[in-house]
Structures are given as C-alpha cells and as structure tokens.
C-alpha cells in the first residue's frame, strides 16, 4: 500500500517539552511538507524539503525544526519555543516533476497540557 | 487582507442540491488551482486540479477558474450526504516553487 503515514495520531505534551512528529512516505516523492491547521484557518506551511539533506522555512517556522536524512522520512520537532503548539499537524509529499499534486497524511493532533 | 479568501460557512443543503463553493484571491501570479476535501479529523484529499483559466469536470464535480476576476469555484451536482466535509481551495505560483496557499475552508453538510 503506497501512501503517507504519520504517527502518533494523538499526542499530549507538557509545556516546556520538545516533541517529535513522524512522517514517512513510500511514494518515492522528492518533496515533503509540514503544515499546521487551526480551527477556522487554512493550512499554514511550516517547513518543506525538495531533496534529501535540504529544507526551507515556510510561513510559520518559528519554534519548529525538521530534518531530511532520508527521502522517505521528514520528522518535525515542536520545540518549547513554539508559543502555541496545540494544533492539527499535516504532512504532505509530492513529485518535483510532472504533476506535482500534494498528497496528505492522516495528521497528528498535538495537545499541550 | 488574506491572499486567499474563502467563506467558512457552515453551509447546509438538502441531498440532491447543487452546491457552489468559492474562493477569491489577490495574487494574479497564481497559475495552478486545486480543491481538496477534508473529512473530520482526517488529512485533505485532492478533488480537482486545474491550470490557468477554464473549466474542468470530473463526475459530479466541476471546477471553474476565472483569472480575470481572481475567482475560483467548485460545483457539486446531485450532492450526497457523503459529500459532507470541509472543502479547501489551494493555489500556487508557476515555476519551481511548490508551496501551496490555502483558503480557510468551507464546511459543508448535505442533509439526507
């Protein structure tokens, strides 16, 4: 089964803790993305990566960090510097050539207690 | 002003109705336009993908792009309760940049 997996589905964190969200894809896509979704708002881009070992900040990168050591994996770390981390986090991937449709994973809901 | 504006709804229609969902945008450089459907607590799935102006039809769904008015629409014919979801418009520039700019989403409920 080809697709994008995100884990965990639900995550609870205490204030002041860092937490890492997993995103894996077996679609052989070059590009991967992290978005944040808040109620009543569209998706906002946190970070994206077009190739392995390279990534760029999106519109709301402050308080987040990423790595892209493998083509299949693009983990997101929500650091204690992120002021308002409670949100629904979505990972996506796409080809870099041809139809560049972004395919989304099922999401991780992070709640800070 | 947001780059992409979308009426958040909620929108309720009876089964079988024609639904019209719309987005306006301010950046005339957007060239690619998409509609995603998102069920509650799930990731968005792509419904329609269009380039530049014109219409595109896929089953009960029709996407329209009017670049001169900076306005895009998604029409759903013969709406079904299974169409109940949040619909997100998205768009991007041409060239190597692949980042999408999303509308805030319209919540649709189709009543049986």
Can you give a write-up of this model?
Chain A is mostly beta strands and 113 residues long. Chain A has strands at residues 4-7, 10-13, 19-25, 31-37, 43-51, 54-57, 64-66, 76-78, 87-94, 103-104, 108-112. In chain A, the strands form two sheets. In chain A, strands 2, 4, 5, 6, 9, 10 and 11 form a seven-stranded mixed beta sheet that branches. A four-stranded antiparallel beta sheet of chain A has the order 1-3-8-7, with no helix packed on it. The radius of gyration of chain A is 13 Å and the shape is globular. The termini of chain A are far apart. The model of chain A has no long low-confidence stretch (mean pLDDT 91). Chain B contains no helices and eleven strands. In chain B, strands 2, 4, 5, 9, 10 and 11 form a six-stranded mixed beta sheet that branches. Chain B has a five-stranded antiparallel beta sheet with strand order 1-3-8-7-6, with no helix packed on it. In chain B, a hairpin with a 6-residue loop joins strand 4 and strand 5. Classes of the chains: A mainly beta (113), B mainly beta (112). The A-B interface holds A 4, 6, 31, 33, 40-45, 48, 50, 58, 88, 90, 92, 94, 96, 99-107, 109 and B 4, 6, 8, 34, 36, 41-46, 49, 88, 90, 98-100, 102-105.
Number of strands of chain B: 11
Helix content of chain B: under 10%
- The stretches of 5 or more residues of chain B where confidence is low (pLDDT under 50) are none
**Could you give the count of β-strands of chain A?**
11
* Content-based structural category of chain A: mainly beta
> Uncertain regions of chain A: pLDDT < 50 for 5+ in a row?
none
Major sheet of chain A, described briefly? 7 strands, mixed
Principal-axes shape call of chain B = globular
Q: Percent of residues of chain A in helical segments?
A: under 10%
Biggest sheet statistics of chain B: 6 strands, mixed
